[in-house]
Structure formats: structure tokens, C-alpha cells
Amino acid sequence: MSEINIYHFHYGHSVTNVARMAEVAGERFDIGQRVPEVSGEAFDLLTWYANWLALIEAEEGETLSEQPSMLKAEAADTFEATIPWNQLELAAVLFEKDGKPLGRNGPIRLYVPDGSSKCLNVKSIVTIRIGSEALSSVKDEASYGFKQTFSKDELFKK
């Protein structure tokens, strides 16, 4: 099962997988409820985040008062989208189609209807970064495209 890296502005790096994300999110729904032209099983991104954060806070014995200001979704093909947190109200994570993992568009796909674009979506997500205002230059608009800069380690990765 594919790993998904989560980087949080306060709690750092953790690794999860699709099954665990869906379990933490709880309720599943047909993505067509939010994105009519798409089919498959999804979970609500903000519900997942609230439940995930509650688990982390319980482990750490502290409650985080600062709210995120942005989410950055990074795909396996170097496509990435940075989305202001206030545009994620209807964001959904597609993780199954016809009862099976997504396959070539997986492990997960993020849909953000009614944000600063009609329906921003990012397929093949392998990394999620959750940032705060202090770490972010995100304004009111989502930005997206293929990654333009690479580290030395990324260039020599096999």
C-alpha cells in the first residue's frame, strides 16, 4: 500500500497510508455529492484533519491553538497545488473507485470544488503539507502547476 507523507507546521513529519487516512476520517461518501462528474468513495478533508489532529494532540499531550493557513498537495509527477485553508470547506479526498484503490491516479486524489478555481484537483498525491501563516506566503488564491525547483537529492534520486 502506498505511503503518504504528512508534514505539519507544528508536529513535523509523519507517514500514513490510504486505509489509515480513511479510517481516521470516519464517514465515507460518494464523491459525486460534491463533484457531480466524478464517481468513487471519498472522505472529507477537514474532518480527516480534525480527527488526525486530535489523535496527534492526545499522543503529544497538548492542544494546538494555531489554525493552518494553507494546504500543499504534492503529486508523484511533481504537480503541486497550494490552497488557502479557507477554501477547503468542501474539499474531498477520493481514495476508491468501484471498491478498489485508485491505481494509476492514486493513492489519493484531492478535489476542491468552489475554491478560487471551478474545481481544483490533484491526482497521485504522495505528500500533504499543512502550513501556518508564519510559514506561508499564500494569499487568497490557490496556485498550482509543476514543481520548478528541485534539490540536489531529488535530482540524483533513482
Automatic annotation (TrEMBL):
Protein name, as recorded: Oxidoreductase molybdopterin-binding domain-containing protein
Lineage: Bacteria, Bacillati, Bacillota, Bacilli, Bacillales
